Amino acid sequence: MSSVSRTHPSSTHRSELLPYLSAAVAGIAGLMVERRGSAGLIRRYQTARLRALLRHSYERVPFYRRRFDEAGFHPDDFHTLDDLGRVPMTRKSDLRLVTGEDAIATDCDGARLNRYGTGGSTGTPTEVRFTRFEDRLLRLFRVQANRSLGLRWSDRRCTILASGASGAKSRLERLGILRSLSLSIYAPWEENLARLRAFRPDVIRGYGSLLAVMANRMTDEDRRTIRPRFITTDSEALTELARMQIEAGFQAPVFDIYDCFECNVIAYQCRQSEMYHTMDASLVVEVLDEAGRPVGAGECGEVAFTSLHGWAAPLIRYMPGDVVDRGPDVCACGSAHSVVAKVHGRVQDRFHLPDGRVFNVKLLTSFIYPLCPLLRLYQLVQEARDLVVVRLQPIPGVSIREDKLEELRRGLLSALGEGVTLMVQVVDEIASEPNGKFRPYRSHIPRIASD
Known about the structure:
The chain has helices spanning 18-36, 39-60, 62-71, 92-96, 132-148, 171-174, 189-199, 208-217, 220-225, 240-250, 402-416; strands spanning 3-5, 90-91, 114-118, 126-130, 156-161, 179-184, 203-206, 230-233, 254-260, 264-269, 276-278, 283-288, 300-307, 318-319, 323-326, 339-345, 350-352, 358-360, 375-384, 387-394, 421-426, 441-443. It is of the alpha/beta class and 451 residues long.
């Protein structure tokens, strides 16, 4: 995740602490349910957590109380998972129309939450808020997903990030548990290669498109020292071509993780099949058609999820804008988890740059994240092979300081490379397409067969 601001966990009065203590205990239990639970136990766990979350949101979150009342829904109406369809759905645009306090529980101090700015592929900046416990719990669910893929506590993990900065070592790392190294995707290949050789990671994580480029540069000499046991990809749709290139270059299996800022991990790829196991003890995932009805197995639909462990700023039937194929009732491996057959993600344009690179535009959003709390929308457009225009639409009444804009320019130019002219425009409005849809990334350069 790319952090916009980090503060302390939320504080509550002692008389209001019980729901959060209960949620914390249930969250820890959820890690065990995720690891060992049967299908029946998972379903009972989801039902109990949903019942408690819906009541908490109705009683303490003004946004959801209004939404539920407008839809004629009351938490007492929820009895089984089938009743979830009666709860109104929440889109990013719905949350952007309310003040931050309206979407935060009234017994929670919003100023003391961990906050993350998300740009995402929709182009609509969103701020995600967690208590410190919620934040760490979701990270533990990610560890749990990796454990299911074969992660060992003694493994050395290398993550290749947009930021790339490694923070202070955790207490666990100082004990030799889950040691980690972070590399920057913008650092010179030779520098990253040298650090990979020295660290000798057991597990590597990164963007599929980036790892594919790195894999194509690997030599036999590199492979003698860089020998990961497996590799995980996330944050963008993994193409079959990229998978083949990564597995051939690193000589290690690749498992894709379907994630998002708002809930960390949604699903992870099965070791035995190409299906994705959803993190059922962390969230409830629905795959819906245009009318909001569940699609059948093998059918394509839009994702809506309810995060079971986000109580400070709940996300109920939240639609991140992703498209997936719903899987069968049971994975071929026999897992008790529900299944997503395929993750389509979002269609994104790529920039064809003067130096010959075909650049994933999503990698540029890390430089925009620090401005997200100030923005209503942003858009990146390649007008010509050597000209990129960035349009920023601030929230009404908000101005962006020139030093922040200059920092943005420097970051973008460092990623785009030489030969590219960059224009950053602060505008009152960014127009949608004629069909009413908004495209955050757009290139006017014709696609080529090798893209």
